[in-house]
């Protein structure tokens, strides 16, 4: 849905002035998440810790022209073409705009509030309803005064259903969220102690949360929760209510039976005299409660019981769940170091309990200071001590000054440390045996360090990815370009083998402009993982348009068939102005339109409104080799003619790009509007000179076993490795199934052990290979580098007569990727 600058100024009741109107499609409050600068409206929010006005200059440089501000900006006159919409309160303006936007749509909107489970309920409702309705929902847990307006802004003309969560930490906040969300169906999950500081009583908090539900057509809540029932009664909603109960058959939704199995739960219910049941693939009490809330919503929307049962059975867990890993000395580690309020502690302890009971293990809890409760420390930790005792914890390790001060309240085997560092410095592995250890701490305590220490280090082959080097390389290429030139980071083929999600996340935080993947599914995975920046899909398939659209992925269009098909499919869904990228074949002769096709491309584009050419681009056939320079220049000329033609016949600015990594290094004068950075980002220079590019990926393993063998013996399959001297032969757990090319067998390739090269002996096996370490001082357990700093992929590529790209992308997905920053 589009607005002009002037329309927005009117909605937010700004001081009257003249604006140079732009079409605004995106709202921005965090300058790091900028994607479409020309169409972005930035709200300079002022918080206790930050002032958005500080980022205006930088955003202007990146192409943003529209700003909502609270006061004039120094140097405003120099920012030509910029609009400053001046208001008293930028947050209020953001909320007004979202509220006005919401009112334009007459669709069902579900508002979810409560203390725990909001995000899970929202995500599950999405999984349950999306097959029937084109649904938008809050991204992750965007439930705050800022997150809610941004969530609501996503509603568009095609939206048939919206699900938003609303969270508050102080009185008077919910009124604003209610104004913006205007839910037609309201749901309150439960009320717990989290965020209690701002409220005098728990009733007050409950009443405040219920404000979200005040104008709904129907409200859903737990009819067995006396606090919520009391508050609902007090507020006299006067709308339809679906209170569910496990005890009271007269409630609209009666849960007659809950049967827990090993890893699933069957729930029987009666709704309007009708009996039915369904099964969810979860057993925790919290999941059961969340599923019942979702059931009530599905029933309200008249979804048939068999549909409900079928979809409930397929619910998937929402990220941030607890992970269980193998630990040292037969321990199991449950890592839940994301938050630490009493409710989530109870949930985690339940989870631990079930596991411990099943395995007959001792229960240990490592717990940090608990934040976010309104209770005085003594009552808080008395309560915690009580819960811990009830849940059968046998050993407590408390970390933090406050829990240490209250040590006397705990009546079990216990030890306390003032900080995570002091615990780690005194850590002795022998102190832990056959225990199920729950690690539960506030983020600030960095308990992931503890879980890493307790986890079992396996002999394994890993690909270590240095995220700092990625950032270094990104900045290096950025410094070779004009500041306004945009960068598309190629993360196709699983980020050239390095793993696309972590890289995408890192690059998104660094302010990269675009990502490019090969196929739609790769893009969908990134979106699911929370990547919000624009994503190009280089090889979209006809069958993947739905995925493209639902994850807002921007396809490369290289043929008339594809163009026709996407327009037809987009038309069915009523899309308008969907961004696509036009690929020109300027001489590579792989995919793309040829120069002679341009008039017809222009006709087809101008004849419809479904898609819009956001960029036009072409790809070099030999930009890394000087002997092809003349050809590369011809490619540039052909491309330029095609791009000029397209631009002349378009009302919008179309971005152009042709340079890949080698192009950036060798023809920076043709950087145009954007470049496409691939191999250079991953630490490999495509030309002779290393150009300051840092190594990113290291493929590593460890020595399993060493044998001393006399001359004349043979090693491995086919007896190919004939020993010509008395040798020490080491076996390492990496084979061709991990991506170690079998052509490196029999001394053709080598690896690095303790700084020295060890040749590969005999044939490489599927999972193991043997190396000659006769001249190397080493023992089992020592590290082995397959490629990395000491043995560059370029060298291996040369040995094999291939290119580094193939070496990088051949590392099998079964090889664990480990990411680190220095
Ligand atoms: C892979 C790819 C790139 C990146 O190439 P590098 O040589 O890795 O920089 C650029 N453009 C297109 C179309 C690609 O497929």
Inertia-based shape:
globular
Unreliable spans: none
Instruction: Supply the number of helical segments.
Output: 26
The total count of strands amounts to 40
Nearest-angstrom radius of gyration?
A: 30 Å
Strand order of the largest sheet: 8-9-7-10-11-12-13-14-15
Quaternary structure type = single chain
Family: Belongs to the alanine racemase family.
Function: Catalyzes the interconversion of L-alanine and D-alanine. May also act on other amino acids.
Modified residues (N6-(pyridoxal phosphate)lysine): 492
Domain Alanine racemase C-terminal: 696-820
Task: Kindly describe this structure.
The active site is at 492 (proton acceptor), 717 (proton acceptor). GO terms for molecular function: acid-amino acid ligase activity; alanine racemase activity; ATP binding; pyridoxal phosphate binding. Pathway: Amino-acid biosynthesis; D-alanine biosynthesis; D-alanine from L-alanine: step 1/1. Catalyzes the interconversion of L-alanine and D-alanine. May also act on other amino acids. Keywords: ATP-binding, Isomerase, Ligase, Nucleotide-binding, Pyridoxal phosphate. With 822 residues, the protein is α/β, with parallel strands linked by helices. It folds into five domains: 3-94, MurE/MurF, N-terminal domain (Udp-n-acetylmuramoylalanyl-d-glutamate--2,6- Diaminopimelate Ligase, Chain: A, domain 1, 3-Layer(aba) Sandwich); 105-312, Mur-like, catalytic domain (UDP-N-acetylmuramoyl-L-alanine:D-glutamate ligase); 322-457, Alpha-Beta Complex (Protein-Tyrosine Phosphatase, Chain A); 464-682, TIM Barrel, CATH 3.20.20; 697-821, Lyase, Ornithine Decarboxylase, Chain A, domain 1 (Beta Barrel), CATH 2.40.37. Helix content is 31%, strand content 23%. It is built from 26 helices and 40 strands. It has a nine-stranded mixed sheet. Helix 4 packs across helix 9 (285-300), helix 16 (467-479) crosses helix 18 and helix 25 packs across helix 26. The protein binds pyridoxal-5'-phosphate (PLP). Pyridoxal-5'-phosphate binds at residues 490, 538, 619, 660-662, 676-680, 686.
